[in-house]
Design a protein that fits this description.
289 residues, alpha+beta, 8-stranded antiparallel beta sheet, 7-stranded antiparallel beta sheet, 19% helix, disordered N terminus
Amino acid sequence: MVLHSSLSLSLSLSSPFLNPNNNNLILNNLNQHKHKHFSCSAFKPTSQNAIFRRDFVLFGLTSLSLTTPLSVTLAEEEEEPKMASFEDELNAYSYLYPVELPSKKFVFKWVESRKPERYSSAAPLSPDARLRIVSERVDIIDNLIISVTIGPPNSSIIKTTDKSKWTAKEVADSVLSDKSALRVTSSQRLAESSVLDTHSGEIDGEPYWYYEYLVRKSPIKVTPDSSVYRHYIASTAERDGYFYSISASTLSPQWEKMGAILEKTVSSFRLLMPTENYVPPYKDPWRFW
C-alpha cells in the first residue's frame, strides 16, 4: 500500500465526475512525487456477525450527524480541496481523497477503518459473501465514508460477457443487488436503493461506470425522520471477471456541502497495472485466512 503526502491539486472547473478523463492530469502530477511505503495488517472477520457490526457502526454515525452539524460550512463558490493519493498494491487500484480545505483551515478526520486486504479474507457485504469490502476509511465527525469493494457480476442482471454492451444502470443494479447485510433476495436488496443517475466513460481504453444513489432502508431504525438517507456516489470498473467499485457517501442533508468533494474522489478511481504484490480475487476466493 502506498500513501502520498497531501497535495494541493488544480482540478478542472467542471465536475470531474461528469468528465472522468480530466483526472489523467491529476495522476500525472502524482507520479512526479516520491512514495512513502509502509506495511499494515488487516481485519479478518470470521463470521457473518461482522456484517451487522459494521452496519451498527455506520448507522450510529447517522445518529451522531443528525445531532452534530458538519464541522465546516463550505462557501457557495466551491473551494478546491487539498487531496492525498491512496494506492492499494494488493488489489491494484488507487484513488484521491480530500484531506484539507485550506482557506477554511478545515482538516478532514479520516480513520482507516479497514486496511487493504485480499478478496478471500475481506469482510462480506451480504450473507452470500459475493461482494466484499477490501478497504474503507471514515470521517466519523462529518459522517463521510469511502469504501472499495470487489465482487463478481450478478448473472441475473449482467447477461453477456461483452462489457462494451453493459450499461451503467445494469452495472449499478448488479453491484447494489449484492450490497446488503439483510438475509433477503437480490431483488429485495436492490429495492433498498434508489439510483438517481448513471453514465459511463472510458479511461485508457477501459470502460468505467458511474452512478449516484440513495440507500433508504437499514437493519436498524436510527431516526423517525424517514426523509434522511445515505447519499452515495460510486464508480465501477471490471478486471478478470470481477467488479472493482468505489463508493463515497454522506447523509442526504449534507450532500449539498460535501457532494462535489466526494465526486472528485470517485472520479479519480483507477485500476492499476498489477505488480508482484497483486492478489487476484479468483485466487482462493473462499479462503478466509
